[in-house]
Design a protein that fits this description.
Layout: E1 16-18, E2 26-30, E3 33-37, H1 53-75, E4 80-93, E5 106-118, H2 122-132, H3 136-142
Antiparallel strand pairs: 1-2, 2-3, 4-5
Helix pairs in contact: 1-2
Amino acid sequence: MTDAEQTDYSNDDWLEVENGPGGLASKVRHGGHELTADEPETVKGGTDRGPSPYDLLLAALGSCTAMTLRMYAERKDIPLKTVTVRLRHARIYAQDCEDCETVDGRVDEIERRIALSGNLSGEQRARLLEIADRCPVHRTLTSETKIRTRESDSE
């Protein structure tokens, strides 16, 4: 086994998702935190007991955006009071997307709207919107991402 294959699954670096028989609801655990992910009842097997996987993806982007803007504003002494990030996900036809590289089939589109409150100048607002694209989750979603899948030992 290589060092990469001898991974310690007991440390907090790993997020764990567990699903058992009886529906799509899954327990998501990391560190001392736990939440439920599910699909809406309109999806076969869904019981709407938690956010959907795409809702969680949007939550990751939205929370990262808000945190990035907060950190930047505090570092630059920008009088930002609150940040509200609203997001939605859609699958659109590539031919309807003017700035997409893909030309056939469908592409995923995430719309993000950011409301900033505080005594901010136009220049500060513009800069904060630029900084939003620097949040690490945004960068991950817009860059090439490798997902390596292999079977793990069962407990």
